[in-house]
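CHAIN AND CONFORMATION:

***
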Amino acid sequence: MANQKFTKLIVIALFCEAIIGCDSVSPTIPPILFGPAQNPSSVAPILSPSYRPTPSPSISSPDPEVQKPLSPNPYPFYLLPLGQGIKAAYWPSFTGFPASSINTSYFTHIYYAFLLPEPATYRLNITSFDLEKLLEFTGTICTLNPPVKTLLSIGGGGNDPNVFSKMASNKSTRAIFINSTIEIARKYGFDGIDLDWEFPANDTDMSNLALLLKQWREALEKEANITQKARLLLTSAVYYASKITLFVVPPTYPGDAIGRYLDWVSPMCFDYHGSWDRVTGEHSALNDPNSNISTSFGIQSWFQVGVPPEKIVMGLPLYGRTWKLQDPNMNEIGSPAAGPGPGDGILIYSQILEFNNQNNATIKFDKLSCSFYSFAGPSWVGYDDVGSVKLKVRFALARSLRGYFFWALGQDLDWVIPREASNVWGYG
């Protein structure tokens, strides 16, 4: 009982510190700031860095409904038992990072990314490459210590959203898809299934998504009852906010169905800005006082459509976005840019450290966005480092979220960011 009281005091302290912030700023452990209500981005956050979003016409004429300030979090603060919650990461099968190199010490769940449904049949398409990688992943993960849960992720930034749209539009095609996912997940020893449909484009898609989730959850429960095995988990990676402003008429996710049928939902809180913009920006800003393109707004919007905080796992990037400055002397956030910078617009975290070191880059922490940026000559990089990631994990704790996930394994250096994030989550 004494330990429980002590744990509760620690978390309440974190919560209060997160809300009020602090006056002094350290470059490694900055204060949590809560900006004004903000507008969802008109540029898609993506799960696969190989994807390049393009601005939508809705950028110049945002949905007036999204301009309205959000009301306070309708859910009460709750306390996760010490050490519980989700600390997850995606393993991209296509990058060459070996599954045997995964350090499971800092994670509870690892996602395999990705499989795709076959466009004609809607069954999962297992290519020879997929077969090799599935065997590598599942054959390796089960030998690692400490053990972690595994989820099979379907879709990703390179998926054809029309395939998901057509599949979800009919009960029989939904059943074909669902049965295929269960079959493959069981065959290769996964603990769950993750849907990454990028993105439902309209209200019809969203209605069908709700039907898909309901039918999927019922099928998982039925299969578990028949086989007497633990039910497969069901999760989904989603747009960072509950309303997708990629489209001229932004559709809203079915919050009630998500809260009812998913074990958790994973907003992709990154790629708010990139080299498609004409100015520099922080692509995973916690706050943005000038717009609604921020994690704090996105998470709040999920509360407003009825998804409780204990069903939300917040996305964190292990990569940054780069620009070439028009004028090297104008090097702040929002400075004019002439196109992509190093790495053709993207650098993973280990490459950012190398860039900073080799170019003797100037490194800055931005208090408003709770992010870092660096520049050397005309090259500019916006990214998260240890300090800002620790801050964002504290934000997740303060908002009573279920946990966090990283895109992606293999992009870190010596596990420094997952280690520090795990320490914060464990109240360390």
User: Anything to note?
Assistant: The radius of gyration is 21 Å. The longest helix spans residues 203-227.
